[in-house]
Design goal:
- The complex is a heterodimer of chains A (616) and B (314).
- With 616 residues, chain A is of the alpha+beta class.
- Chain A has eight helices and 36 strands.
- In chain A, the strands form eight sheets. Chain A has an eight-stranded antiparallel β-sheet, with no helix packed on it.
- The longest helix of chain A is centred in the N-terminal third of the chain and has 31 residues.
- Chain B has 314 residues and is α/β, with parallel strands linked by helices.
- Chain B has a single domain, classed as Rossmann fold.
- Chain B has an eight-stranded mixed β-sheet, sandwiched between helices.
- The chains are: A alpha+beta (616), B alpha/beta (314).
- Chains A and B meet through helix 5, helix 6 and helix 7 of A and helix 8, strand 7, helix 9 and helix 10 of B.
Chain lengths: 616, 314
């Protein structure tokens, strides 16, 4: 028997090695030979040209998927691709994805057209905001419950996940009973626990009634077809890199969200990339935000798709890597990240970099999971009650505590004066910012205005509950702004993503005056991070909306870009400011991917179109 | 560390610092409230340094009789260990079942038991870790939490029911006036005991969780004390109020944190603790509940000496 097991084991190892070899080989080939050309037209079954359709292509054996969108004539143009056998698909809400296979063998353009068949029940293709838009809100009672659902359920789970299946009242109640005691990271319910989700407990009867009405067995859902990408948003090239699981680096991810009508992946295969940053050499550094046996930090080579894991053995979790969550890269190319309670360091300039770790002195708070580097090259990180600064030149740590108790530190950003700002979005002191004062060594608090809401919808008990329970990260009162992650620009402003308030806030770092910029779509987008590029454009991942947005402070114009897959939980944006034209990287933790967005101009598209025409 | 502890204990024995100031020192020296509790509650070295009478709240020791007792669990498979503190008089006295936090039956709980006894309540503090050998044999505070988690939760409720029955047989106890008082981890169990024992006289809880089921079976009036900066627990008060109506009364103490009643915890708030204490006594005695309190010279010197109104939220 043991011989048979050994043979099976060896076969598995050989198959695994073969898969890894073929994947890497295909990716290396991609870097070496990218002269293939792919274009085509997408039409409906009635022959109508369809614009804004996502067309995706993946060469056999690769972990890299490239996607583009059709223009107003229904035509799409891929950037140069490597030669090989391709699996490609085209899709949009309301139509079945059409999947095809073909070869790209020469520099002669491949013309691959798609004809999309209509899909009767297209609900599983919806993003979370699209799902929220279907919830009934015709009466004050329904408006109350829609807000309760949004602020109680939509934080842990995008509505595209929670609403994709139907249940009767008893079914919804059974789910809510579990949610009532479950931990914020899905920890099993504890019967005598603190009632992690106090709001679920309080509202569960009303929620079960509302959800049975909104998403019951016989409910007729008010589906609205969402607008498709147009203009700049349809010119983008999205490259998705499948990142190996941090549970088992040899295992490719299966639930990748590629085909929308299959719905949002129903489980976390592993909680994958949480944050990422790009180094001066174009490599992308990844942290996972989950203790795992494979890596504290990893490096993606965008040219080959290869992921290099850096394992730092944890002392407190034997057999596991040190936990990380945030990463920042300074101007010299030093990669800084949290590693258990310490500050990790890797020099990206080294061909064979070594991993170092600095610990704050005894009695000082540990290094927590959001980091930034200030203009002087100092590294800042969150700690339990404020922030901590590390000065590389002197190798010293300094703590800056929040001046008032009751809140939990969340995000962190560095301003152009060398100070750090942090957000508090949970606890009993929430919707405030902390700001260090490096001159005095103290901190100040900057309050935010409450988010607009309809007070008249809520009962006195509701209001008592909200007032006493405060805010969790994922369950909040209706007036919560939820300042989440933030970054400074070079002009004396901090930009803060208001998760619950669905807006951006700009704060003058000298006067502390706050100006709010609401996101144009009123449904909950999941405005998670604000980060400013070298051209002063503010970039925002829309965690629930399968997309991201840019905000131009000069014109106050928003532009929304869609991802070509579903189930992406994108919390962060990494900017490649080293390229002449800024590129945007987005980590997706649910589907274990890194997405790169490259932006083509109208002129680029005209040239591309002309080159394809000339070849024809 | 032991040298520093010994110096502080000697200072306490010389009368230079109060017992609570000693406790606050221990919090710092042992690394936290939980460790200090555990140190006092189960460490042999601590026991040798702090004889039981010296570990009492000032003025209490002469007024009460204390002993550690054992009685059979309902299953007869183990002995329940408990700390019994009794007033000197013959009685009948009202009584309290004191239900401890996740730190087990430690010195802090014994001190609270003595304080209740000094106020005229026969007080029984059962050790919920009894099936596993008791708090005293567990090595450190974290291990107490883990050991408690491993025990069947409704076995603990059975032990509390047994304790209720045991107390009812005490000749000094007025069996119609047996109340339950729970802290933190003990709060869920206080509610569960109240659901299981319709004859429970009253219940008082300090900042803890609540069972989802069974509240409709509770007959006893309940008084609850919550901290302002403790939203996960404090927010549950509104849900409980909806379920129980006027049978349930709660107070939220402004500018306080979880564990504000616990003198050995850095979050101890002397003014709020004193107000919660006098309200608890008044509630158990069917007297009007005070709305404010003044700290006097015998009260602990505070980290933050604050006295505030703590009226019901409505």
């Amino acid at each position: 028997m043991w011989k048979r097991k050994l043979v099976l084991l060896l076969l598995a190892v050989v198959a695994l090695a073969a898969w890894q070899w073929s994947s890497r080989a295909a990716n290396r080939q991609a870097a070496a030979d990218a002269s293939g050309r792919l274009t085509g037209v997408v039409k409906s079954a009635t022959g109508q040209a369809l614009d804004g359709i996502a067309v995706s292509a993946q060469v056999e054996g690769s972990n890299i998927t490239t996607s583009v969108y059709t223009d107003e004539e229904g035509r799409y143009y891929f950037p140069p691709l490597q030669k090989g056998h391709y699996h490609a698909w085209a899709q949009t809400v309301g139509f079945h994805a059409e999947q095809v296979q073909f070869d790209v063998n020469s520099s002669q353009a491949v013309q691959q057209d798609f004809t999309l068949q209509t899909l009767k029940d297209f609900s599983r293709q919806f993003t979370a905001p699209e799902w929220l838009a279907t919830l009934p809100d015709d009466t004050p009672a329904d408006q109350r419950m829609k807000m309760v659902f949004r602020n109680t359920c939509d934080g842990c789970h995008p509505a595209s996940f929670t609403l994709q299946n139907r249940f009767d009242r008893a079914g919804w109640m059974a789910i809510l009973k579990v949610m009532e005691g479950i931990g914020v990271y899905g920890d099993p319910p504890v019967i005598d626990g603190p009632g992690n989700l106090t709001y679920v407990r309080y509202f569960k009867e009303d929620l079960a009634n509302y959800l049975a009405k909104a998403r019951g067995a016989e409910t007729k859902v008010n589906y609205k077809l969402p607008p498709r990408p147009r203009g700049e948003a349809a010119q983008v090239v999205v490259t998705e890199y499948g990142i190996t699981s941090n549970d088992d680096p040899s295992r490719p991810m299966v639930e990748n969200g590629n085909i929308w009508e299959e719905g949002v992946p129903s489980s976390y295969e592993s909680r994958g990339p949480h944050d990422a940053e790009v180094d001066p050499h174009g490599m992308v550094w990844i942290v996972d935000a989950q203790t795992n046996p494979a890596r504290t930090v990893a490096k993606l080579n965008p040219n080959t798709g290869e992921v290099t894991n850096f394992f730092m053995p944890s002392e407190r979790n034997k057999g596991m890597s040190m936990g990380s969550h945030g990463v920042t890269i300074d101007k010299k190319g030093i990669v800084w990240f949290n590693a258990d309670d310490g500050l990790g360091r890797i020099d990206s300039n080294d061909a064979h970099p070594k991993v170092e770790r600095m610990m704050p002195p005894a009695g000082m708070a540990g290094v927590s999971g959001n980091l930034c580097t200030d203009p002087r090259g100092n590294v800042w990180a969150t700690q339990g009650d404020g922030v901590i600064r590390y000065v590389p030149d002197t190798k010293t740590f300094t703590e800056f505590d929040h001046p008032k108790p009751g809140g939990d530190t969340y995000g962190l950003g560095c301003d152009s004066d060398g100070n750090a700002w942090w957000t508090q979005m949970s606890g009993t002191r929430y919707d405030v910012l902390g700001k260090s004062d490096i001159e005095t060594g103290k901190s100040i608090e900057v309050p935010l205005s409450p988010a607009p809401y309809k007070k008249e919808l809520f009962t006195k008990d509701d209001m008592d509950l909200y007032r006493l329970a405060g805010a969790g990260v994922n369950t909040v009162p209706p007036w919560a702004q939820g300042p989440r992650r933030l970054n400074g620009d070079t002009h004396g402003n901090m930009w803060v993503a208001m998760w619950w308030g669905n807006s951006l806030a700009k704060i003058d770092i000298r006067t502390n005056k706050v100006k709010y910029y609401p996101y144009p779509n009123s449904e909950h987008q999941g405005v998670y991070t604000a980060i400013v590029d070298k051209n002063d454009m503010v970039w925002v991942p829309l965690m629930n909306a399968e997309g991201l947005a840019s905000f131009n402070p000069k014109t106050e114009k928003w532009t929304e870009y869609s991802y070509p897959s579903r189930g992406n939980e994108t919390r962060y944006i990494a900017l490649d400011n080293y390229k002449p034209r800024v590129e945007v990287w987005v980590p997706s933790s649910r589907t274990n991917k890194l997405l790169r967005l490259q932006f083509r101009t109208k002129e680029d598209m005209q040239q591309l179109k002309a080159s394809f025409s000339a070849q024809k | 560390m032991q040298g520093k502890i010994r110096a502080r204990v000697n200072a306490h024995q010389r009368g230079e610092i109060s017992r609570r100031e000693l406790l606050q020192s221990l919090v710092i020296l042992t690394g936290g409230g939980a460790a200090a509790h555990f140190f006092l509650g189960s460490d042999a070295f601590a026991a040798s340094l702090i004889p039981p009478k010296e570990a009492q709240t000032p003025g209490v020791e002469a007024e009460v009789d204390t002993e550690t007792i054992h009685y059979s669990s309902s299953s007869d498979k183990y002995q329940i260990e408990a700390y019994l503190a009794q007033p000197k008089g013959a009685g009948p006295h009202p009584a309290v079942i004191l239900i401890h936090e996740s730190r087990g039956l430690n010195e802090n709980i014994r001190d609270v038991a003595r304080r209740f006894a000094a106020e005229g309540f026969v007080t029984l503090a059962p050790d919920l870790l009894s099936p596993a050998g008791g708090t005293g044999i567990v090595k450190n505070p974290q291990a107490v939490v883990i050991a408690l988690r491993r025990l069947p939760i409704y076995g603990m409720i059975d032990d509390l029911k047994t304790s209720f029955e045991y107390l009812g047989k005490n000749q000094k106890v007025d069996a119609k006036k047996i109340a339950a008082v729970g802290f933190d981890y003990g709060v869920w169990r206080t509610f569960a005991l109240a659901s299981a024992v319709p004859d429970l006289y009253k219940a008082v809880i300090f900042y803890g969780s609540t069972p989802d089921d069974g509240l409709d079976q509770i007959k006893a009036p309940i008084l609850a004390h919550y901290a302002e900066r403790d939203g996960r627990f404090t927010g549950q008060a509104v849900w409980i109020r909806k379920k129980l109506g006027k049978q349930y009364q709660f107070f939220v103490y402004p500018d306080t944190d979880h564990d504000f009643f616990n003198a050995a915890d850095p979050r101890f708030d002397p003014a709020a603790a004193k107000l919660a204490w006098v309200r608890t006594l008044a509630f158990l005695r069917n007297q009007p509940l005070p709305t404010s309190v003044t700290l006097d010279k015998n009260d602990v010197k505070t980290p933050a000496s604050r006295v505030r109104e703590g009226g019901p939220v409505d």
